[in-house]
Amino acid sequence: MQIRVNGEALLLEHSLSISGLLELKEVKMPEMVSVEYNGEMLDRNLFSTTVIKDGDDIEFLYFMGGGFFSL
Amino acid sequence: MNDWSFETASIHAGFGQDPETGATSVPIVQSVSFAHQDPQELSDIFNGRKFGFSYSRIANPTVVYFENHITALEKGLASVAVASGMGAISTLFIALMKAGDHAVVSESLFGGTYYLLKELEDSHGFSFSYVNISDLSEVESSIKSHTRLIYAEAIGNPKLDIPDFSALSLIAKKNGIPLVADTTTVTAALFNAKNFGVDVVVQSVTKWVGGHGNAIGGMITDLGTYSWQKSSSDLIQKMVKKVGDLAFVVRCKKLRSNLGLPLSPFNSFLLNQGLDTLSLRMKKQCENAQQLAVFFSNHPKVHFTHYPGLTHHVQHGLCHRQYQGYYGGLLTIRLGSQEACFTLIKQLRLVKNLANLGDTKSLIIHPDSTIYRDLTREEKDRAGAYHDLLRISVGIESVQDLIQDFQSALGHIQEGV
Question: What is the pTM of this model?
């Protein structure tokens, strides 16, 4: 299936949860990342049970690094 | 998160070791800014779409290590380090309140916090109810529709009163507002704030956490227990829409950047180093304070000794339950007059007269004439800064040497002064 992660296309061979995608993308400090799932903020408690579907648009927002200051 | 005890986590959590060099001490990344060859990468970092660093006012690797270490010890969600303890407290109130908003705060507050709240009342239109934090009916009846938080110090400085956080938590939950504790005097070494219903912790890490009197810093930690989605603050709601449950910490981080309150990398290194020995130091300070309190209680020149470890302290039992059987490293004595206080200070040879707390060295100060100088007599008395009171922050020296120093100095106070 094809999805978009932070604006870039990504081909997934297997079904995956949001937690699995954070692992696959080797996201540093995943507990400090907010996830926007198809334009909606996703509750952290749903990361492991939300299964990604073809065409999904996912945005990772990193809190601990050098971004977000303009929010 | 692992199941390490506090003593183990205070040494091993947060950093571990550098994956490239094997260094086990946190590296000091003394750099203002961070270069990126790819302009898209720097743009993504600025927009939070990629992890990385851009400018040290916004974030710095050494500071992040320290924040993660504190978060692990508090078993919290995330922390934001700032330039001082007062920076942490001002960021907290500005993060949660705007003009017209209200907070319920303990009347027993550090002098600097008093001055800040008065400033926020005068210039920002915030309002505060200063309450006897041990009077739960007063706390509850002070809450209004526009109250945004309840705020108390874990051990009131210098009143040494102890809030019942579990009881306060019930009131906060009933009213849908967060309970915030300034835990500077106890730290996570003595107080598992999360287990007692506290939602947010602020600390002056200059004090017991750093512990060596060589670096100033502050920390705000979201313990992850309060649902910001339910917050009545529109400032927080605006952030919830953008970052979900990280709304509060991201708002604090934004304020740190916009107010220009970053903690320096070198101070982060020094303060983080303090965590390794925090538990040992705090327990030794508590033991020394207990013995000194007993000494003062039996000394004829000391009119009154105030220490939660003494059985006559009205919250002795609460302190024991809440702080793992410890009573803190602060005690106060009353000598009957300012003159007697000054005489004692002048005669001390070991104990230093200065404005700080939680140092390895024992420290003493006359709060009435220094930290609380600008408050009215009534405000000073309400905060416990009486005219004849001395505040002692007990260090880790031999307690026999401390007792000898005080014994000798007390001998210079004339009867009837």
Answer: 0.94
C-alpha closest to that of B232 among B127, B80, B89, B98 = B98
Four-point Cα dihedral B109, B273, B363, B181, nearest 10:
10
Query: CA B156, CA B346: separation in Å to the nearest integer?
Result: 26
The alpha carbon of residue A46 is apart from the nearest alpha carbon of chain B, in Å, by 12
Closest to B258 in 3D by CA, of B90, B123, B417: B90
Measured distance CA(B135)–CA(B140) in Å, rounded = 9
Contact map slice: A 31-50 vs B, CB within 8 A: 31-32, 34-35, 41-44
Helix, strand, coil content of chain A in percent (nearest 5): 20, 30, 50
ipTM of the complex: 0.79
B292 and B406 Cβ atoms separated by less than 8 Å = yes
Residue ranges per domain, chain B?
6-275, 279-410
CB atoms near residue A39 (< 10 Å): 7
Task: Report the C-alpha gap between B401 and B394 in whole angstroms.
Answer: 12
Domains and CATH numbers, chain A: 2-62 (3.10.20.30)
| Measured distance CA(B225)–CA(B384) in Å, rounded | 32
Does the domain at B6-275 match CATH 3.40.640.10? Answer given as yes
Give per-residue pLDDT as tens, B210-251: 999 999 999 999 999 999 998 988 889 988 888 888 999 999
> Position of tokens 């005068």?
B122
CA B74, CA B224: separation in Å to the nearest integer? 10
Are A68 and B64 in contact (CB < 8 Å)? no
CATH code given to domain B279-410 = 3.90.1150.10
All residues of chain A having their beta carbon less than 8 Å from the beta carbon of residue B67 are 64
Residue of A59, A64, A70 lying closest to B49 (CB–CB): A59
pLDDT value for B416: 63
DSSP B264: P
- At A66 the pLDDT is 63
SS3 state at B175: coil
Q: How distant is the Cα of A55 from the closest Cα of chain B, in angstroms?
A: 19
